[in-house]
Specification:
single chain, 6-stranded antiparallel sheet, 1 helix, globular
Amino acid sequence: RLGGTDVAWVGVTKAGHFAAHTTSSDSMLYGNDVMRVYNLERHALLHHFCLINTEVEEAEAAAEKDNSPEVPVVRVCGSYLTGAGMLVTAHVDGSVCMWNLDSRERVAECALPKMVSVFASNHDATVLYLPAYSSCVVWNTEEAVEKGKLQGHKAAITRVVLSKDDSLVATCAEDCVVKVHSTKDLKTVATLTGHSSTATCVVFSLDNKMLASGSDNELILWNVATGQAAHKLAGVACGSLAFSPSQALLAVGSAGPKSDCSVRVLRVSNGKQRHHLRGHSGQVNGLAFGKDDDTLLTVGQDGMVMRWHLPSAGTNNDPPAILLKGPVDGLAHRPGGKLA
C-alpha cells in the first residue's frame, strides 16, 4: 500500500523499466531502476525510490566512458508484484531479488544457474517458483533455501502461475503439456495434454475449478477436477490470458507468429466470443481485468497500455483510453495485490 493505493499489476519493459496500474486510482508506476508513481490523469510524479543500487548506473557510466567490459552491470529481465506488497526482480545474471517497497531495501536474494524471466510467488512472498528449464525451483525466501522442485516436463517451462488461494501451481512448457501441482507436497495432481504446439500461457479461474491454457494456434479451457477439456478453440494465437472477477469471461491476448494484434473476450460457459477488441498494432503481451467485468487493461508490443470498457450486452465497444505510450513488454497481475 502506497498512500492508500492498491496495486493491481506490475509490468516490465524492454529497457528494465517498470509500470504498474492501481485499482483505486489512476496512477502508474514507471521507472528505469528508479521506481516512480505517476498519476495518469495529471501526468504528475507522486513518489519515487531507487530499486537497483545506484552503483549499477555509475558502473554503466564508467563502462561507456572507458569501454571496459569488466564493469559488472546487472540488468532486470522480469518482475513480479506479490500480494504482500513485495517486488521480485529477475536479473540477466541469474540472480533473483526481493524488495520491500516500503523500506526500499533488498530483503532476499537467490542465484540460479541461468537467467529466468518468468516466475511466480505465493501471496505472502515466502515462496518463489523459478523455472530452470524442464523443472521449477521452489525457493523459500525466509530461509533463503531451496524447498524442492516441480518436475515432470520434458522440455523448457514457458510459464508458471499460482491459484488465488496458493494451493495449486500450474506450469506449461515446450513439450505441449500443462501440469498442475500441489503447493503442499509439490506433487503433480493433473497432467493436461491436448495442445499440438508449445503451451505458452496458463491461468487459473478464481475458484480453481477451471484452467485456461494457450499456444500459438489454440486455446483450451480445462476442468481442473477431471483433467478434461471443456472447450477447445482452434486458430487462436494466445500470448496472455485473464479470467474476469465474476469468472464469466476469459480475455485472450493475441501474440506469437500468428498474432492478429487483437484481444478476444470469451464466455467461459460456452467458449463463444463476446467481444473482439482491435486497437493495438503489435502483439498483445499482457492483460488484466479491473474490479469488475466491465474494464480490461491491455499491453501491446506497440508500446501502448490501453483501458477498454466492455458493455454488458452487444459487441460494440467504445474506443480504448490510452494510459501509457512506451516499450512495455508485459503485464503481471496479482488479484488483491497491494503496494506495501
